[in-house]
Amino acid sequence: MTTTRRTQQQRRDQAEAALLGAAAELVVEQGVRSLTLARVGERAGYSRGLVTHHFGSKQVLLERLARATQTGFVPGLGGLSPGLDRLLRLIDGYVGALGGVGVLNRAFLLLWAEAATASELAPIFRERDEAFRADLREDVAAGIDDGTIRPDVEPGEVAIAVVGQLRGIGLQRLLDSKAVDTERLRRSVTEYWHRTLSRSHA
């Protein structure tokens, strides 16, 4: 019985991953306005009924796509305590990951940019950005507490600036990949934030 349930869950997870992948491909190729549950099902090789069963609506599909594309973008941070080291590793890892960004992450950046003018996307990406900023604020606050970050730094302002910089680099990479050398840039951007925040550089 347990084995059957696990197999059913595995099938469900596989189908959902395929549907999210298909949705991301359609967003990258044709934009969010062309996205429908029927087209996602057709691209993934499933019926529209299965897509509806998994997501229920286009809005829920977009929410799941936004969450899925952020999960695990910078691996190896889970075991680190909040603070300056985790913040700098996130920045370095994020810029480095943009060098090999896949279709899911390209879709996320395109949807994020489009959220400024698309009412169906705005609430999703406000929530995603706030979750990102909350993690960054936690790192800065922890760094202030442990003395590695200058006490005059404002965590909320740093969070806004870091999110803007990282997402902006990502969009530039999408527009002109040859102009954005992520391997060189990751070092300079990480060092900039280290100099800016570190108490030892004050």
From TrEMBL:
Keyword set for this entry?
DNA-binding, Repressor, Transcription, Transcription regulation
Query: Mind telling me which residue stretches traverse the membrane in this protein?
Result: none
Q: Any idea where the HTH tetR-type domain is? A: 13-73
The ranges the UniProt entry gives for DNA binding are 36-55
User: What Pfam family does this protein match (any one)?
Assistant: TetR_N
What InterPro entries does the record point to?
BetI_C, Homeodomain-like_sf, HTH-type_TetR-like_transc_reg, HTH_TetR, Tet_transcr_reg_TetR-rel_C_sf
**Gene Ontology molecular function, alphabetical:** DNA-binding transcription factor activity; transcription cis-regulatory region binding
What this protein is called in its record is TetR family transcriptional regulator
Tell me what organism the protein belongs to: Amycolatopsis balhimycina DSM 5908
